[in-house]
Amino acid sequence: MAKTKRSYRCTACQFTQVRFFGFCPSCNEAGTAMEFDSVPDSAPRAARPLSSGGVAASFGDLGDVSPDAHTRSSSTIAELDRVLGGGIVPGSYMALSAEPGHGKSTLASQLLAGLAGKGARVGLVAAEESAAQVKMRFDRLGHNGRDVQITSETAVERVIDAALAGAYDLIVVDSIQTVFSLESSGTPGSITQVRECGQALMRLAKEGGTSVLLIGQVTKDGSLAGPRTLEHMVDVVMQLEGDRDQQLRILRAVKNRFGSTDEIGLFEMTGAGLIGVDDPSAALGTRRQSAPIGAATCPVIEGARPMMVEVQALVSPTSANQPIRACRGIDQKRFQMLLAVLSRHGQMRLGSHDVFLQLAGGIRVDDPALDLACCLAIASSYNESEVPLSVAAFGEVSLLGEIRPAPQSERRLSEASRLGYSSVIQAPAHTSVVACLEAVLGGNRQLSTGPGEEGP
Questions:
Q1: Which of 19, 148, 386, 413 could form a cystine bridge with 451, CB 3.0-4.6 A?
Q2: What are the distances in angstroms from CA 397 to CA 203, 236, 267, 348, 406?
Q3: For the domain 282-449, what is the CATH code?
Q4: pTM of the predicted protein model
Q5: Ramachandran angles phi, psi of 346, nearest 5°
Q6: pLDDT tens across 328-367, in order?
């Protein structure tokens, strides 16, 4: 019998070596080393047969596959259908992750209730809650849960047997970190258990034709908890984002084999559950009665929809040796880059000031067109001069201190015009960001154009 050998595996990227490591040599993540016992192969790799020696696999003609076999069905939640690309594909394997308290169980409950109301056979694996706790949530959502089947079983083999026997259309597992496989060692939530349970549920989706939705927690960096291989297994990875202190929630598709990953879903957290938001600009409340110092508005494109986002900045002198640089809603590295551009090209002495920046409403935006509005808000707070209420701005800022035009300008201008903005800054390529800031904050409108007009 071969002797076991102690090894260490990174829970993030699956890198394995025999020595312990603090930082993974492959992905450079800290604290991801997990010890396990491995059994070395008894036969050398060169001596292994090329063929399995059993029954050969059969290949089929792709042209014989009927396209109707993967007809989408509506989830009854319009914003979720938008993210999925039009609806749920039968036999799809999906994952939904979010931080605690962001509403992932609520969204899954609304999905189950809506499909059950259409006559679909749905089931919930409540591995974290009792049936009474789940019933309380369904009552709060206004659904009696009569057509939703529930089990508290945590053994994945028994769950799969029940799902196959019941011919379910959708199974929701809440959560993947609390179920376990009878055929694997380790505690629920460990790297081995999550991988084995994920593979077993994948076979249920692909071979049994049952759509499966996994609910998972997220790590500190916002990625799906468990091994990275779980994200490679599933067809769709969705993340529910938002500030716990705010009501707005954003559903993003990080991965989608059946549609685009550019679409987002907007929800408002209420006592009756997550309600879809048709007008995100109105939900963010970007319109004001007076122009404050340190605020600028930008028409951004998230997915296929434009929306107006307010950038708020606070620049304050500091006596500390190391000034504070804090932002919320944009990438930290991009925020630091914008501060460096303003310090170098704008002659702003930000090294002796604390700089805080955030997006109103707790929203997070990755659109680079937000750069110009961020610079305007920071310069407005630094110079103590307000940006006019009728002015919005968008444009990407380069390291050379120049503005680069943003794509889909027509849609941005149309959204700004709909909300009553009379001037929108869309400077031509290679325009100096310093000249743009001086023109807006100094009252000169030579760089400002009305929505729908051509820029200078």
A1: 413
A2: 47, 33, 31, 16, 10
A3: 3.30.230.10
A4: 0.78
A5: -95, 0
A6: 989 999 999 999 999 999 888 898 999 999 998 888 888 9
